[in-house]
Amino acid sequence: MESRLAASRFLFGDYITDSDVRLYATLVRFDVAYYSAFKENRNRIVDFPNLWNYLRDLYQTPGFGDTTDFNAIKIHYHLSNHIASDDQKSV
How far is CA 4 from CA 1, 10, 11, 39, 89, in A? Predict the structure, then answer.
């Protein structure tokens, strides 16, 4: 994705497609939830310049940032039952 977005504003050219909408939903959650909750700690989205710029561009687009609730994302991923602690995984 990083190299693809180096040559293109969006995944498939100059216009937002369904693929961009779906990728946004994943990327916007990554640093605030997946990175720590699922121990995905190799890199954050902010560590990839093209992905980070892409995400920021989408976030500023009407319908994206204004419907993104970071607090709700954090609460869901950090307080949900689907994230088992190390003690629960061994049972």
Answer: 5, 9, 7, 26, 37
